């Protein structure tokens, strides 16, 4: 008869009272952290979906008390919003791709030990993070470059991000040198090595930098105010939302809405600066919230492996 193997015993790990207390406190802390993190966004969403005249009374927490889309209708009734959204998307996509690619090229160059000026160039780049000419010299430089009133004013000034470049350089320096040497032995030049070897291997760092750059490009509005405020066709979504909020704050109908709400009549629909601000926050945040899950895996890995080194 065939000899049967004895069944493997399963030993349960002994959990002491201190382990149970630690796990309980850890769970309570993490749940509390999740609540603190999610509550402001959920509350803002509830305010944006609530009737504006009713929101003045307060007391809205996780769910709208009187559901209404009047605030969203007010925001999207402007014809310029959709064109500004298109400009924002175009700016974010082009700005992110060009900035990441340019920063990666510079990062690869200064990561090579055979580049004799790499330390000097790195110091020059890092100094720009601490020294700034100020707003007026910046404006004069943009004017002399003939970028005012141009779409490229959103792209060219930030084409090299120093912090982003340092993150990518640190990641590239952690790659096995043998891979790059093998490519050179096979006859690949620097550019081909960069495009076919370094870039694919640096995807986590590139995704991290792309997320940083994309969020900056999407949320930026001050450069629109400085350089393109007189060019409506180049206005962005963030600038239009900011301008809409400023107009709502100075609009006399906001005062009448408050008085109307205090009178006890809540049958009419109004918008208030509070409801518009909440709606603007949701409209501006949703695209980044949609994109982030697709980059989260690379973002975490890039921040772990591509830490900033001196």
3D architecture notes:
- By secondary structure, the protein is mainly α.
- The chain has a single domain, classed as MetI-like fold.
- 68% of the residues lie in helices and 0% in strands.
- It has 14 helices and no strands.
- Helix 4 crosses helix 12, helix 10 runs antiparallel to helix 14 and helix 12 runs antiparallel to helix 14.
- The radius of gyration is 27 Å and the shape is flat.
- It starts with 16 loop residues before the first helix and ends in a 5-residue tail after the last helix.
- The C terminus is likely disordered.
- It is found in: Cell membrane.
- It holds the Pfam family BPD_transp_1.
- Belongs to the binding-protein-dependent transport system permease family.
Short description:
The chain crosses the membrane at residues 20-42, 81-108, 120-139, 151-172, 193-218, 276-295. It is built from 14 helices and no strands. By secondary structure, it is an all-alpha fold.
What is the number of beta strands?
A: 0
Distance between the termini: 69 Å
CATH class: Mainly Alpha
Biggest pleated sheet: none
- For the record, the count of structural domains works out to 1
Poorly predicted regions are 252-269, 306-310
The ordered string of helix (H) and strand (E) elements is: HHHHHHHHHHHHHH
CATH topology: MetI-like fold
Domain ABC transmembrane type-1: 85-295
InterPro entries: MetI-like, MetI-like_sf
Family: Belongs to the binding-protein-dependent transport system permease family.
Protein name: Sugar ABC transporter permease
């Amino acid at each position: 008869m065939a000899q049967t193997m004895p069944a493997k015993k399963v030993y349960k790990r002994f959990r002491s009272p201190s382990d149970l207390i630690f796990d309980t406190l850890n769970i309570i802390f993490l749940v509390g952290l999740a609540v603190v993190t999610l509550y402001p966004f959920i509350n803002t969403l509830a305010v944006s979906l609530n009737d504006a005249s009713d929101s003045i009374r307060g007391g809205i927490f996780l769910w709208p008390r009187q559901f209404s889309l009047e605030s969203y209708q007010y925001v999207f009734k402007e014809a310029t919003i959709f064109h500004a959204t298109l400009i924002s998307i175009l700016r974010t996509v082009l700005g992110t791709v060009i900035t990441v690619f340019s920063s990666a090229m510079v990062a690869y160059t200064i990561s090579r030990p055979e580049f004799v000026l790499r330390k000097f160039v790195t110091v020059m780049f890092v100094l720009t993070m601490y020294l700034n000419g100020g707003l007026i010299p910046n404006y004069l430089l943009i004017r002399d470059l003939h970028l005012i009133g141009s779409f490229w004013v959103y792209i060219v000034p930030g084409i090299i991000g120093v912090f982003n470049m340092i993150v990518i350089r640190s990641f590239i320096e952690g790659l096995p040198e043998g891979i790059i040497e093998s490519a050179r032995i096979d006859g690949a030049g620097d550019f081909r090595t960069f495009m076919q070897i370094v870039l694919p291997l640096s995807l986590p760092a590139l995704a991290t930098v792309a997320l940083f750059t994309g969020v900056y490009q999407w949320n930026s509005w001050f450069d629109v105010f400085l350089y393109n405020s007189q060019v409506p066709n180049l206005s962005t979504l963030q600038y239009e939302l900011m301008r809409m909020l400023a107009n709502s704050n100075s609009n006399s109908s906001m005062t009448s809405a408050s008085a109307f709400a205090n009178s006890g009549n809540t049958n009419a629909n109004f918008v208030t600066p509070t409801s518009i601000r909440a709606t603007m926050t949701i409209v501006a945040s949703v695209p980044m919230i949609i994109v982030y899950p697709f980059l989260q895996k690379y973002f975490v890995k890039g921040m772990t492996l591509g830490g900033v080194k001196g």
